[in-house]
Amino acid sequence: MSDPSDKANLRAALRRRRRALAGQASGAALAAADHAPVAELARLGWFSSYHAMGTELDPGPLALRLIAAGGRLAMPATLGADRPLVFRQVRAGDIAVPDAFGVPSPPPEAPEATPRLVICPLLAFDRAGGRLGQGGGHYDRTLAVLRAQGPVFVLGLAYAGQEVAALDLEPHDQRLDAILTETGYTRFRKD
Question: For every residue of 150-176, which 3-state class applies, written as one string?
Fold first, then answer.
């Protein structure tokens, strides 16, 4: 799907779907956290969560469980439209500040961290690990940079109803290693 208007229409339809799913699944974030292999994921050390916007599935319950199991939390900050995200450590007493897109983020003086687990939101996913995001390319750029530096495990967090049969991915699109929904956890094969 290389026609930008087709992709914009698809994203609009998927946003409507996610809104409907969010209205039907009030306990989805807790249920998803219950399915996560927390001990395995926390062993990765630094992890990145996100600040849920709109009807994105709330990563808060999962993040709290990872922290309790020894994971260390960093949150993303957007510095500009065409730049990769930076990850800053979340420290007690820090007050979140809006990043370049107004999303609450750790303050600029917070130390940066390199997460080995990235929990990311999405509009849709498929069973091959394909991920369709909001369209800004922030996670694709960021994941490419992180993967060039070393291993990183990318966990999509979504409602089960956000699954689609197949996504038409482009060469720059970064795949998920696993998906976590209110109905379960699925790790994708890499072959």
Answer: CCCEEEEECCHHHECCCCCCCCCCCCC
Under DSSP, is residue 132 helix (H, G, I), strand (E, B) or coil?
strand
DSSP for 42-107, written as a single string:
HTT-EEE-----TTSPP-HHHHHHHHHTT-EEEEEE--STTS--EEEE--TT---EE-TTS-EE--
Query: Residue 1: which pLDDT band, with cuts at 50, 70 and 90?
Result: very low
Rg (C-alpha) for the chain, rounded Å, is: 16
**DSSP run (H or E) holding 134:** none
The burial class, CB within 10 Å (0-12 / 13-18 / 19+), for 99 is: buried
What are the residue ranges spanned by the domains of the chain?
A: 4-187
- DSSP designation for 188: P
Which CATH number applies to 4-187? Answer: 3.40.50.10420
**Structure-token pair, residue 6:** 């087709």
Q: At what angle do helices 60-68 and 28-35 cross, to 10 degrees?
A: 30
Tens-place pLDDT, residues 8-65? 899 999 999 999 999 998 899 999 999 999 999 999 999 999 999 999 999 999 999 9
